[in-house]
Specification:
Blueprint lengths: L6 E6 L2 E6 L10 H15 L6 E6 L4 E3 L4 H9 L3 H19 L5 E5 L2 E3 L1 H6 L4 E4 L4 E3 L13 H4 L7 H8 L3 E2 H7 L4 E2 L5 H9 L4 H8 L7 H13 L4 H12 L3 H15 L3 H13 L5 H16 L3 H11 L17 H6 L16
Parallel strand pairs: 2-3, 3-5, 4-6, 5-7, 6-8, 7-10
Antiparallel strand pairs: 1-2, 8-9
């Protein structure tokens, strides 16, 4: 039986094209995929015939729904954290490569984009959302935290939108992605193939994208922008919760939204929520390399902790949606324990020299 490769590579015209090819698994990112994408990108960086990179995916449902956390869960339960940390290390190195790539890097995102999919696309030059674009960073639901460079990207989004997305794990679609800056362009799904061909043909990448871009319509988060900025600025968990409680006492749409968010945050891993808050505070002072180094320190601790395995069990294995977090309550979290997640580790994340 012939096994389909998990990633397809093609040089067409002036473009090097990377196609994620695990549609039945929602193109979830594996270590094997990371290990073939990285060297191919480095080779194309020095190939004069390739003037731009296009990243896309097979299937209409998902661009990349995240990393293969079930595999990481299995490794951790077997006491093989070193192997799971090897995946995270290599993934973060690839994230950094994309963020420092010397040629235009264009992601065509027409489907679910979460976790690892965010890491593959968010740091590139251009992020193009189709009609099926669906973004979230829901890691706090599974005892993880919004990694793969979320520390760098999310706190830089306007009006505390990134803090809101990190804390809530809520999903947004194309218009909101464009509104908050996660997307650089919106293109109808029906126009993605034509855009790809135009990019392959050469010419100025920015001009080609502008020609094919379309208005995705009103952004629901735009109406919530003042609320989100007021509640989530500062990224302190206790302060955010107090502000939500005050809003929840109000009548109308803001009160409803506050009560919905307050209930949702109570269900997250308390440790994860506090780690996310620490990320949002530290992130503005860190470049991408510094952010990824900080995340690797934190994920090293999480991989040897409990909540990640309990969260994956509840969400993806037993699917009872009843995680038993440790500690169980938001006010049981010791700030010193959270800060220690970001302390130096013996085997720090390092980055190879960038391609010329």
């Amino acid at each position: 039986m012939t096994t389909e490769p998990e990633v397809l590579f093609e040089r067409r015209g002036e473009a090097g094209i990377i196609t994620l090819n695990r549609p039945k698994a929602l193109n979830a990112l594996t270590q094997g995929m990371v290990r073939v994408i990285d060297p191919q990108l480095r080779a194309w960086a020095t190939d004069g015939a390739v003037t731009r990179i296009i990243l896309k995916a097979v299937g209409e449902k998902a661009f990349c729904a995240g990393g293969d956390v079930r595999q990481l869960y299995d490794l951790g339960l077997a006491g093989r954290q070193a192997e799971s940390l090897a995946f995270w290390r290599e993934e973060y190195v690839l994230n950094h490569l994309i963020g420092t790539y010397p040629k235009p890097f264009v992601s065509l995102i027409d489907g679910i984009c979460m976790g690892g999919g965010f890491g593959l696309s968010a740091h590139g030059t251009y992020r193009v959302g189709g009609d099926r674009y669906l973004f979230a960073m829901p890691e706090v639901n599974i005892g993880l935290f919004p990694d793969v460079g979320g520390t760098h990207v999310l706190p830089r989004l306007p009006n505390a939108a990134g803090v809101y997305l990190a804390f809530s794990g809520n999903r947004i679609r194309t218009a909101d992605g464009l509104h908050v800056g996660l997307l650089t362009h919106a293109v109808p799904s029906s126009g993605m193939a034509a855009l790809e061909e135009a990019l392959c043909a050469g010419g100025d990448v920015a001009a080609t994208l502008a020609t094919h871009a379309a208005d995705p319509g009103p952004a629901p988060l735009k109406a919530r922008a003042a609320f989100i900025a007021e509640v989530f600025v500062g990224a302190d968990v206790a302060t955010v919760l107090a502000r939500l409680d005050a809003k929840a006492a109000q009548e109308g749409a803001d009160g409803d939204f506050a009560r919905e968010l307050r209930t949702a945050l109570n269900a997250k891993s308390p440790t994860s929520l506090h780690i996310a808050a620490e990320q949002m505070k530290r992130g503005p002072a860190l470049d991408l390399a510094g952010a990824l180094k900080a995340e690797f320190r934190a994920v090293t601790r999480v991989a040897h902790g409990r909540d990640f395995y309990e969260g994956v069990r509840a969400q993806l294995v037993d699917k009872d949606n009843a995680p038993r977090w440790t500690p169980a309550a938001l006010n049981d979290i010791d700030p010193a324990v959270i800060a220690a997640h970001f302390d130096p580790i013996p085997d720090e994340l390092e980055f190879p020299a960038p391609p010329a």
